[in-house]
Amino acid sequence: MDKKIVFFDIDGTLVNVPHGLMHPTQKTKDALIEFKKQGHKIVIATARGEVPQSVKDIEFDGYICNDGHYIRFDNVVLIDDIMSTAQIQKQMDVYRKYNGRSMYNGHDGQWCAFLDDELIIKHREMFQGTSKRPIGVIENFTAQDVKAISCCVLFENADDLWNAYHELEDEFTMIPYATGLIRMDVYNKGFTKGTACAYLYQKLGIDYENTYAFGDGVNDIEMFQLVKHGIAMGNAVQELKNIASDITKSVDDDGIAAAFVKHFQIGE
């Protein structure tokens, strides 16, 4: 049997927090459990700094977080790309200049001085399904205190976003979102979500022909380009659908389960 590996985005793919779908559906869980029983691998690939408890209902083999800057497989950490104090300070100075509200994320904590800001609250509602103030976030800190792998910074307008982007683009990898909740995710240069997926399946010795990915957003484009089978959710952005090898149903309509029937004959 040829071993296969499937990478899954979280938001808009496994769950849909704005629509109240807080957990993967039972059909999705059943399909992934059966896939694993057959000896294949399932891996999370997300921009999130940590995997929400709702997705931990499923025992994934590996986790690619922070858009590729933290990789763990079989409980072994393979990549943990922490920013330097100088890099944190540079970001702080630029975000202050353009009125950015920053949230730094690492595995030893979270740092945010704007927990009660309207934009930060909207971000919590979008990705956590609640406006409730989180517990345990460090609010008073200096650059030296921060041990972050990533930063999500929110702006009031796209001009401020792009001004900050251009001041930082030579040193950092950034994924900008210039519409809706205007923000960008910031990481060290190096791995991306897509190259992290390629690194992992190559390390595991899994043939390119047996690599799959599910996603819905612009930050999934490179991931789709670096696996053989990129399967877009029905609710995916058009840019991703344009390069997908297949399009399944939406996340709200058991799109992953439907694709597992089609591609792996699981759940028929």
TrEMBL record:
GO CC, alphabetical: cytosol
- Care to name a GO molecular-function term for this sequence? phosphatase activity
Instruction: Give the matching Gene3D superfamilies.
Output: 3.30.1240.10, HAD superfamily/HAD-like
Q: Under which name does UniProt file this protein?
A: Cof subfamily protein (Haloacid dehalogenase superfamily)/HAD superfamily hydrolase (TIGR01484 family)
- Please name the source species: Longibaculum muris
